[in-house]
Amino acid sequence: MSASIRSLNIGVPEPAAWAALQRTAIRKSVVAGPLRVTRLGLEGDQVADLRHHGGEDKALYAFAREDLDFWEGVLGRPIGDGQFGENLTTTGIDVNEALVGERWRVGTALVEVSEPRIPCSDFKNWMGASGYDPTAWVKRFTAEGRPGPYLRVVEEGIVAAGDPLVVEHRPAHGVTLTAYFQACTTRKSELAAVEAAIAAG
Questions:
Q1: How far is CA 115 from its chain centroid?
Q2: Cβ distance 154 to 103 under 8 Å?
Q3: Please, what is the Cα angle at 140 between 52 and 196, to 5 degrees?
Q4: What local confidence, expressed as pLDDT, does residue 174 receive?
Q5: What is the mean pLDDT of residues 84-94?
Q6: Quick one: 111 exposed, middle or buried, by C-beta within 10 A (0-12, 13-18, 19+)?
């Protein structure tokens, strides 16, 4: 199966007593598009916590439908596209085996894998508020090593659900998103070496 964009998901800040800032934009609604992709993300999507989310290096967040299906099995309940706060739900590609710096053509936009999503307490609380078992959620999510990538936008463009996802460039360093995620979380002693490898290209 060829890789593609299954859904586009956008949200706006809304009140949430369980969120660190008392507001969050993690709740995403599926839209078919087409939507414009700018340097700061999808048209219509907003960020509540500008310190930890958004900006050019975190313009978009992608998560694979296959990984949502995995968590459905673990949690024993259906999980809709966008539930993990992702802007792009993908299919047909292991996004966690993407290399840091890998570039994808999605619609007419060109995006680049920048860094892994690091789970936080707001993510845990959102899962609980959505009716899922949030017990040790951050630890469980981390242990699985399926973080999904943040993406920077190299070329702005237009994207719609159903558009192909085409890998246009893979750097030579060989550092996968999962390896970088593990170095940031459970294998911190490896972080300096991993970051040096990424920087060297």
A1: 9
A2: yes
A3: 55
A4: 96
A5: 98
A6: buried
